[in-house]
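Recall that a protein's primary structure is simply its ordered list of amino acids. Everything else, from secondary elements to tertiary packing, is in principle encoded there. The following example makes that idea concrete.
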Amino acid sequence: MQRDTGQIPDIRRPRFSLRLKLTIGVILIVLVSFSGLNVFNIYTHRKSLYAEAHKTRTNLARMVAAALFTQLADNELSSPRVKVFLDNFLSAAITQNKLDRDVAFGVVLDANNNVISGQAKPNLVIFPGGGSYPDAATALAEIAKLDGKLGNQMRTTRIPLTVRGRGTVGKLMIGISLQRINDEFMRDLWLNLSVFAAALILIIIYLVVTLGRVVIRPITQVMLAMRDVRKGNFNTKVELNSSDEIAVLADTYNFMVIGLREREELKDAFSRYVSTQVYDRLAAGDLTLTGETRNATVLFSDIRSFTALSERLTPADVVQMLNQYFNVMVEIVFKNDGFVNKFIGDALMAVYNVPIDQDEPEMRAVKTALEMIEALDEFNRARAEVGLFAVKIGIGINTGAVVAGNIGHQKRMEYTVIGDAVNLAQRIESQTKVTGMPILISESTYAAVADRVIAQALPPVKVKGKQKPVALYGVTALVGALQHRRPAMPIEIVLPPHAGVTQADVPPPSPSPGGTDRLPYTKEPGQ
């Protein structure tokens, strides 16, 4: 115990001020929070990479299986043809795949777990215990032995190969390595911890400055909402419990989003009535709605004997059949950058080089016609499988000057094309039932594609609206296309809930003059 000497003690100067202590406390809190947040984000990122890896191997497995099933329909799994197909396909999907660099192996096993075919990247295949094999054959054999169960560094997707009537004939395994993801995870973890000090200074500034806390938070909300709008989300809204200039900014932003949402809804509604090409030109302001003359190629297709067939169908069946048919044909028109101008009952009219300039519009139209006939075969095959009658069509193509523009009532306008070239395309299509050839083109169209199509010159015919006979050409294929015929895409036909017209109900074709068989046709051109 010290004695009181009566002297006035000196006032001590604080070594650590309250401000410094509070600042240190804030630093510690931010340090813990920021470190935890960074670690959480890194783990979350690794989880998303794992999910992406799962999606990659699943999609790849499904792609290989889908291609393999087409081969197994007519061949045994162990046949040389299937093995050669698998060797080539898996080589392209696994060893030559530069995009999915973590794909480690793909192997097809028979029912006894024997390797039929496989490809592997030995340096990516990590076995339990961390080992690997220098060559692909040894690695694939060990994978088959372990049934794809390779430990934490690998993930494997298995798909059983089941063939109708033969049961499960084998299985497909696609494996992906997680080694790169885990290495990058550890690198990012240490990198984030090492740069923490620099980031901490910025966070302290934001936390200490009161004005920063008041301003940045609401601005961040507006910024995030703007990002949502940039991604196409027009249902976002910023709500601030304040009455300052930032709140006015938020209200202005909300008003802007409402306008963008209404514009998007109008665009969606408008696009249901006009084609995408027309809307894009209209939005850009370079579409002459009052009318312009363009050199266009017009394609006109029509279903044969549709009037007779529709009399045997219910209205619901007629609509369903047409929708299924047009779903197939319109996609082909769009694929070749055509403009579907209109539907006239069972007829379809497509135009090329309208409303936008295109290269080789004649060739685009001819390719569309040939692909429509090819797709029609698959369409009819699908209909036959459910007991429905086959559909036959005729296609006429002509090239010439047309007038394009908005036509109609002031309250209901339609962007379309008119002119002699349009009428002639329809007349040419009507000649397909006389000649028996499904695709006919005019001389103007043939002149542009003569060296690239296989066509038969037909005797000139007299058509309505023309004083001189019109030269026609029947197109059967593109030059060289017979040797490079692409496999048809599968088409699903929905059977109506009630009985429809079967093949037996379809009226037989009536012979045409000169012995050429043609389908009955009851609709006059233009109907």
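Residues 1-18, 483-488, 507-527 have pLDDT under 50 and may be disordered. The CA atoms of residues 404 and 416 lie 6 Å apart.
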